[in-house]
Amino acid sequence: MVGLTRVGAAKLSVSRRQRATPYTPRVTALGVTDFSVVNHTILPKGFGRSVAEDYWHLRSAVQLWDVGCQRQVEVSGRDAARLVQYLTPRDLTAAEVGQCLYAPLIDDDAGMLNDPIILKLAEDRFWLSIADADILLWVRGLAHGMGFEAEIDEPDVWPLAVQGPRAVELASRVFGDVLRDLPFFRFVPVTFAERPLLVARSGYSLQGGFEIYVDGFDRGTAVWDALWAAGRDLDLAPGSPNLIERIESGLLSYGNEMTRANNPLECNLDRFCRLDGAIDCIGLDALRRIAEAGPERRIRGLRFDGDPCPPCQHPWPLRVDGGYAGQVTSAIWSPRFEQNVALAMLERTHWDEGTPVSIECGDGSLRRGEVCDLPMEET
Amino acid sequence: MVGLTRVGAAKLSVSRRQRATPYTPRVTALGVTDFSVVNHTILPKGFGRSVAEDYWHLRSAVQLWDVGCQRQVEVSGRDAARLVQYLTPRDLTAAEVGQCLYAPLIDDDAGMLNDPIILKLAEDRFWLSIADADILLWVRGLAHGMGFEAEIDEPDVWPLAVQGPRAVELASRVFGDVLRDLPFFRFVPVTFAERPLLVARSGYSLQGGFEIYVDGFDRGTAVWDALWAAGRDLDLAPGSPNLIERIESGLLSYGNEMTRANNPLECNLDRFCRLDGAIDCIGLDALRRIAEAGPERRIRGLRFDGDPCPPCQHPWPLRVDGGYAGQVTSAIWSPRFEQNVALAMLERTHWDEGTPVSIECGDGSLRRGEVCDLPMEET
């Protein structure tokens, strides 16, 4: 298993198939050193600093993230609202234009297909701002088969994230004071270079900030450059979703923490599952059966001892008294807790806070750890 | 644009989301230096030798490729045959069990969604061996919406390719002489370690060879090791789909040569489009309209002058007399032709063999080239 972590030393091949974003020339000029691939698009993951250095910076200053890989699936037309509701057990009936809604998407077995932010642009127009999966194909297949009258496409929109405690100052300098009072998970149109631009108070960290839905590949560098210039005195740096911060905050990553083999209750998304028949959604029967029996496992936090752990490329088994107790799905050393922190899928019998577990770590070592709640709090 | 090619110097981040294959420990031990990501799975792309060195070796010896990223979508059950036929304009009526069928998958606009090899395992059981897209979601969405009675899932199957002129010798040493006479695009069950294993005469090169559909992640290293041991005297080396060979051979790469914006006729797949109403397939009306008017562009070969070109990460525009004539989608220096070779989408007015074109190359240079037929022949 040790060999697997060496994958990290290999380079990423480039081609048209793994799409660049409008910001790729900028992050390249800033010395990007690591990439991931999400939605057939490259995601910068590092700039030569350690993940810990990036973590402290994200918690104290402000960062600009190229999250163009967070592609949008636009659903519009006569049946758009009915179709989007059919995709998720979250009740969207009272959703307002200008609202962002985190929503599990499930299949007919209640298996998780994605966990996008849904932006309600109009009564008959939505963006699903997705994690890594071709949800466009899923929605188009469903719509064709069920005869929904809707347009489903990927618009020319490339999100850029501004994250960190100084994000409000930076974003309002560039886009106006309207952003200072924008509530969490709301979006507004601002004006940039005499054209409208949607900005949401949201993002893939708990440090505060915005996601800018840059519509038009050709506008990308202008928006990046305006933010970059305005951030000079704010210690602005390029960044990326930070694994330490994400784990401590309990932010899930589709494909890591959960796959199609998991249901929303296993992902602690109970509050986004309306099961009483008030909405028409795929997978509701399966979800009801699961809810009645109760989920067999749930995502929990985990802290564990020993040296900084390697990257978690395969789930690591958890044991209690030698028996299977669950699996670690993401893990890294936390410089704040001075312990390894992880997200894990714990079996029902072992998911209580404080449960001691053994971790079969990817480096072959056996570590002692303890189940904890999310987000992780300092003790 | 120069900066973009530097993406190739950045490392690929690892996580559970970008899946390892059963062969990852072996290719890592053999010094893999480059990866791509296909179907959320890592694809080895280089082992420290140049693409040209790998090319000559592939044409003269035999290589073992980790193509576990070529995931299978298994469709089985009462309506399986009807559902699979509904996905493609290729007439599958006369398909036989044991046959591999290259087939365009299209959507309701006749846009290309994928170009898998379909393996007919039984009258009611198929594998779609796919290029990079979540076809599983597409098929599940369609099946749910249309009420097809079928099971659709991703089986635990991890293809391994043996490619090159000595592939027959190598594969038959390990799996038996039955492979010597196996016709192209047929598969048979062989016995390995007392269990059946499907082997097809196929692969993503024109140098000959097999794809071994290793069913069971845990069988992977045993199959790899058996081939590795048997190839010692055959100059066996680890390899990967080779860009020079692929371009010269005219083998398409979904996401590079074509996307959902292209139809099968633009991809020269006319012979796989049955339009007379004998089959029931999605997108047939759109495809008929396109066929009547004739496609507006087609994929062609291209050879062009100058120094070895950079990787083609964005399509490069082609010009004739200053006007738009098409775009290059994949390109590399060919040591055999001592010219750059490319695959390109040529507009109807400029797609004839021998048409001279100007290429706006990714390094900022303007190159002179000429349209050619595929596969490329030595002149």
Labels describing this entry:
Elongation Factor Tu (Ef-tu), domain 3, 6-stranded mixed sheet, Gyrase A, domain 2, alpha+beta, 379 residues, Alpha-Beta Plaits, globular, 20% helix, disordered N terminus
Architecture blueprint of SSEs:
2 copies of one chain form a homodimer.
Chain A: H1 2-5, E1 11-12, H2 24-29, E2 34-38, E3 41-46, H3 51-60, E4 62-66, E5 72-76, H4 80-87, E6 100-102, E7 105-106, E8 112-114, E9 117-122, E10 125-129, H5 135-146, E11 151-153, E12 157-163, H6 167-175, E13 187-192, E14 195-201, E15 209-215, H7 220-230, E16 236-239, H8 243-249, H9 284-293, E17 297-304, E18 316-320, E19 323-334, E20 339-347, E21 356-360, E22 366-372
Parallel strand pairs in A: 4-16
Antiparallel strand pairs in A: 2-3, 4-12, 5-10, 5-11, 6-9, 7-8, 9-10, 12-15, 13-14, 14-15, 17-20, 17-22, 18-19, 18-21, 19-20, 21-22
The quaternary state of the protein chains shown equals homodimer
CATH superfamily of the largest domain in chain A, called what?
Probable tRNA modification gtpase trme, domain 1
Give the domain tally of chain A. Answer: 3
Radius of gyration of chain A equals 21 Å
Number of strands of chain A: 22
Tally of DSSP helical segments of chain A: 9
The fold-level CATH name of the largest domain in chain A is Gyrase A, domain 2
User: What is the beta-strand fraction of chain A?
Assistant: 25-35%
CATH architecture label of the largest domain in chain A: 2-Layer Sandwich
Distance between the ends of chain A: 33 Å
Largest interface: A-B, 62 and 62 residues
Outline type of chain A: globular
Could you give the order of strands across the largest sheet of chain A? 13-14-15-12-4-16
For the biggest sheet of chain A, the summary is: 6 strands, mixed
Class computed from helices, strands and strand pairing of chain A: alpha+beta
Sequence stretches where pLDDT stays below 50 over 5 or more residues of chain A: 1-8
CATH class of the largest domain in chain A: Alpha Beta
- Please state the average pLDDT score of chain A: 95
Name the helicity range of chain A. 10-25%
